[in-house]
Amino acid sequence: MSSQKIGIVGSGLIGRAWAMLFAAAGYRVQLYDILESQLSLALQELDKDLHGLEEKGSLRGSLRASEQFALIEVTTRLEELTRQAVHIQECVPEVLQLKRSLYTQLDELLEEQTVVASSTSTFMPSLYSEGLKRRQQMLVAHPLNPPYFIPLVEIVPAPWTSPQSVERTHNLMLTIGQRPVTLKKEIQGFATNRIQYAILNEVWRLVGSGILSVADVDRVLSQGLGLRYALLGSLETAHLNAPGGVADYFQRFGGEISAVSATYGETPNTKEDRETLEEIARQCEQLVPLESLEERRVTRDEFLTQLAKLKKLF
Ligand code: NAD
Question: Distance from the CA of 95 to the center of ligand 1, in angstroms?
Fold first, then answer.
């Protein structure tokens, strides 16, 4: 149990999730936002969510919900947030100019011992930390939504991030029960989105060419590949799928993999191809109407909780 202080910038969806993860591990958490109204709302939501999880038996950590909630406080002063923080998790909206101006402000206030991690899903850390005095203390720690139930965190250093900042963030994520993966250097899309986009491109092609419906293409993952991938990665899956392990797998199937891969064709333009987009949206909304999205998210979170218990993550 730690009494160290964690600062969180931005009290929206992801900021609140981080607050719960750190409080569950006993850290003191201070949330900062530019909107005071947003902070009051965040506190109400946190109180409700922590008690809701406790009632369902899904609360993380050994402290009660009320004890975890008592560890969380708020501020609208950035200079207060940075004071004596060991780690700051930045969770402001995904707008590069906004992140840049925030990091420029933080650069003036950061103390020696503080690492600042961005939750960004898309921006490489060099894009917002270049030229700053404290850039060695800045990196990305990208969670997956919902972070409370999905433990992966991608840690991505800029070329100038110090190895100590990387190591400390990696260890901190382990301490709070997340499962970090540290990239050796920054790359666009990090690892998760590179893999996720490869899948999205292919399902787009399969639906766009009329080979599969949205329901069926998603079933390939949810009732097939995804069941394996909930347990094993794609390389260990391959390793188990040939008598002589992964080397044998690629000897047997490498030719077929190359032959199929050569038929993928162009990378789809998922922004401009309106026809396929409208068809995908129409079918998705038949499966889950827009007004039922929230209900479906709740079901997803309940399922992920059970899955996490099965994987004995916490
Ligand atoms: P959000 O819109 O829910 O919350 C953003 C919060 O930041 C709001 O409370 C807003 O008032 C506050 N804010 C705006 N400008 C600010 C400033 N200058 N200083 C302090 N606070 C400010 O956004 P979110 O979904 O929580 O996303 C936050 C970050 O997390 C983004 O970088 C996003 O890419 C990343 N992320 C999001 C998801 C997701 O699924 N939502 C998943 C992984 C990572």
Answer: 9
